[in-house]
């Protein structure tokens, strides 16, 4: 069994906190507000992670797209889109080995919102998903990737351990990289529940193969 070694990449300012030979965690500088936002996972494993946002579009073919690609994804769902058919997303996660996480109740820009308002958006979605899927989310994808100093504290009160942004994005079957022109080990890739779902999953597989990487489940590397 392969032993995982990783380094979580978070927002600046940063300093490395050594945690023994196996793992080192990068956290905010001393005295800075707590910030557990990650954009990627620095790991010795040649893996990349697919995350799929919102839940706007539902299509039974999504199960086949993920199964055929042998990809387990993290679904950052928005509660207002799930309510129409939570069973669809429960089946999609169950049949593909994927995991449902938190993308708020109504998809607002959290930056600048009060702590109570942020807690309502985050905890409300987590409460819904605990009932719908039998598991309380531990990861949050803030809408638009936007968050402020209040978000980490509000999210922690809702049981969130990491705020997850991204280092590459796939839309319409095409990839945009934050840096460089190919995926790197530990990259977190953003996609959405859209009509191009199958093409976007196929593009993720193409990009992982191009970079000699293997798709992996983000929750296996963040705890």
UniProtKB/TrEMBL annotation:
Gene3D superfamilies listed in its UniProt record: Glycoside hydrolase/deacetylase
InterPro entries according to UniProt: Glyco_hydro/deAcase_b/a-brl (IPR011330), NODB_dom (IPR002509), Polysacc_deacetylase_ArnD (IPR050248)
UniProt keyword Aminoacyl-tRNA synthetase present: no
Cited CDD domains: CE4_NodB_like_6s_7s
Domain NodB homology, first and last residues per copy: 46-223
Residues in the signal sequence: 1-20
Keyword Flavoprotein among UniProt keywords: no
Record-level Gene Ontology MF annotations: hydrolase activity, acting on carbon-nitrogen (but not peptide) bonds
Pfam families named among the record's database cross-references: Polysacc_deac_1
GO biological process: carbohydrate metabolic process
UniProt keyword terms in alphabetical order: Signal
Name of the protein in question: Polysaccharide deacetylase
Organism (species): Actinomadura madurae
């Amino acid at each position: 069994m392969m032993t995982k070694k990783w380094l979580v990449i978070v927002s600046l300012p940063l300093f490395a906190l050594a945690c023994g030979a196996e793992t080192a965690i990068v956290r905010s500088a001393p005295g800075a507000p707590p910030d557990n936002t990650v954009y990627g996972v620095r790991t010795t494993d040649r893996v990349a992670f697919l995350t799929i946002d919102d839940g706007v579009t539902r299509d039974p073919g999504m199960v086949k797209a993920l199964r055929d690609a042998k990809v387990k994804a993290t679904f950052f769902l928005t509660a207002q889109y799930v309510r129409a058919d939570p069973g669809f997303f429960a089946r999609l996660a169950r049949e593909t080995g994927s995991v449902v996480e938190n993308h708020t109740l109504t998809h607002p820009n959290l930056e600048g919102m009060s702590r109570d308002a942020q807690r309502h958006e985050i905890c409300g979605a987590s409460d819904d998903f605990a009932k719908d899927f039998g598991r309380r989310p531990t990861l949050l994808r803030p809408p638009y990737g936007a968050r402020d100093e209040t978000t980490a504290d509000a999210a922690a009160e809702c049981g969130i351990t990491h705020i997850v942004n991204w280092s590459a994005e796939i839309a319409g079957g095409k990839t945009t990289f934050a840096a460089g022109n190919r995926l790197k080990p530990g990259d977190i890739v953003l996609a959405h529940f859209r009509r191009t779902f199958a093409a976007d999953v196929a593009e993720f597989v193409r990009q992982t193969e191009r970079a000699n990487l293997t798709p992996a489940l983000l929750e296996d590397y963040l705890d």
